[in-house]
Design brief:
mainly beta; globular
Amino acid sequence: MKEKKVIALLVICLIFTASFVLPVFASPDSTEFVYGDFDQDKDVDSDDYSYLRMYLIGMITIDRVPANMDVDGNGRFDSDDYSYMRQYLIGMIRVFPVQISATPSITITPTVTPTVTSTNTPTPVPTTDSELYMTASKESHDTYKVTLNIKDIPNFAGYQANIVYDPKVLKPIYSDGSEYTLQSPVETGSLLNKKYSPSDFAMHDLENGSLNFSRAYVALNSYRNSGVSESTGSIATIYFKMLKNESTQITLENCLTMPNAVNGTLVFDWNGNQLLNYDVKTAISLSPDDTPTNTPIATPTATPTYTSVPSSTPTAASTIYMSSEKISSSSNLIKLTINISNIANLLGYQANLKYDPEVLIPVNADGSDFENSSEVETGTLLNNNKYSPLKVSNHDLTAGILNFGITYMDLDSYKNSGVSESNGSIGIIYFKVLKNTTTEIKFIDCETMTSGINGTILYDWDSNQILNYTVAQSLKIDTSSITPISGNLSLSIDKSNAETGEIVNVFLNLSNMDKISGIQANIKYDPTCLQPVYLDDNSYVPYDKSTVPPKVDLFQKAFSPLEFANNNLTNGIINFGFMYTNLTGYANSQLSDNNGTATKISFKVLKNSPTKIELSPSKNMPGSVNGTYIFDVMGDVTNNYELKTSFVELNKD
C-alpha cells in the first residue's frame, strides 16, 4: 500500500471531513488506466484535481484512491502529484512524468537554474499588440516594488515566469518586510483573483538570484463559461530590498525547466492552451539615485453601504460567531460574516452551516449562483498568500447545508513569523432573500465532523485542534425590511434529443414578475453543434449580427416596444433585448407583463453531439444576473427575481 508524503497540511492533522457523497469510483485496480483520472470517467479534469485534494487533507481515505493518481511514479500519493495535476489542467505540461520515463524524477516543477538560457525554442514573433512587461517604483529609500503586467492578452487564465536578479544587490521580500523562502508565492496583482480556484506555485533559487513562480485558475470550465475574461492588468507583485546603492537590472529569462517559454514566460488561456503571439519586455533597470520615492497620497475611505441587521453579540472569551449586514446597494442581498474572537494562533477552520433554502439562497459576491463546490470568500484572516491558504467546500444546497473551510498549508513559515491571527473575520457568504420573515442560520454538527464543536473545527499553528472556545451557534435574521425575490426566469427546450438537420426550440420564460418593462439576455451556445435560425416564408434562415429572436407572449403591448440585438455568431453568442419606451403610459395603464414566454430561439442541429444552451454573463452587461437584465416599470434594472434554470441540454444521453 502506498504511503502519504508528509506535507504541511497533513502534519497539522486538519481533517476536513465535509458532508459529501463520493461518486462510485472504480476500484483502484481497474483495468481502465488513465493517469490523473480519479473518478474513472476517462477524462482528466478539475473534478479529479478536487478529489486528490480531498485525499491530501483527509476527506478521502487511501483505499479510495486509484493507482493512476501516482502521476509522477514515485510510489506515493502526495503533494507532488497534486502539483502535476494542476500543471496538467492549465496546460503547463501535456503528459505526466510517469508517462515520460519508467524512472521519472520526483518533480519537474520549476527548480530553476537561472543562469542557463535555453536557445532550443525560438521566440515567436508577435502578431498583435499583446504584451507582458515589468514596471518598477521606489517605495522607500531601499525598497522597490516590481510589478508584472499583461496587456491585451485575451482569455488570460494563468502564467509562469522566471525572473533573474543580482542577489548581491537585491533581496526579494514581502510588502510587510518578511523574507522569501524557496517556495514563497509572490504577491498577487489585479488579475487571477476571482472565484475560479486560483492556485500558486513557486520554486526559487535565492542564492543564485532567480524567482520562478506561477499562478493560474484551476476551474477553467467555470471561468470560460462565465464569458467574462481577463486580459489587461497586473499579475504579480514583488518587493526588493536594495543591499547596495548601485544600478542593477531585473530580467525575464528562459531556463532549462521551461523549454517552451517565451522569453522566460509561459502564458495560458481559458482553454488551457499556451499562448505564443505576445511581446515580452524582458528587462527593467533600477537606478537608485535617479528614481524618486513614491509618496503615498491619502485617499478618502469609501463609506460602507451596509445597514446592520440584528446579530449575535460575542462574549469577551474565545468564541466564534456570526454577524449579518444588509447591502444597501442591493434590494435583496444579505452579507453573512463568520468571526472569531481571542482564538490564539489560528491556522485553519471548518464550519457546517444550516439555512432555510425556502427563505435564503447563497450566491457569490457578484450575484451569481452558488454551486456545491463554490468557495466562500475570505475575511480579514487566513488570507495571507505567502502561507498558501487552501479552501475546501462541499455543500448540499438542496438541503440548505454549507460545509467549507480554509487553512494555511505553509505551517512552518506562518509559525516562524511569530505573528499569529486571533481576532477578525474568517469567512463571508452572501444570501439572496426569497421571503419576508424571521429566519435562522445555525452552526450544526454533522456525521463526518466527529470532533466538531457545534458544527465547527478550529486548529492552531502547533497542529492541535482548539477546544476551549464557545460557539454562538445561531443567528436570527429579520428579512422584513428586505425586498424578497418574487419573480422567476428560466430556459426550456422542446426536445432533449435531435438528429443532424433537425430544428430545436429554446424558450425564455418569466413568471411572477412585478410589471416589468423590458429584458435583455446573453445566450451562449456551441456554434460547431448549433446554428440559430428563424422562420421566414416557411423556410429557416440563419441569424446575422442584428437578428432579434421573435417575441411570443410579452412586450407586444401598445407602449412603443423596442427590440435590439448584437450577436457574435462566431463565438456562439446571441445578445438581444425587448423594451417598452413609453414608460409613463405603461406605468399608468392597468396592463402589465409579468408572466409568459418572452421569446423563442430556434436552432438547426449541425452535429449530433451533447451540447448546452445557457444564459451566460457578459462583460458588456456588468452586474447582470447570469447574463440577464430585467427592467421594472420605471425602466430601472431590478434583481428581484431568481434564475430557476440557466441552461438546457441537448443530446445528453
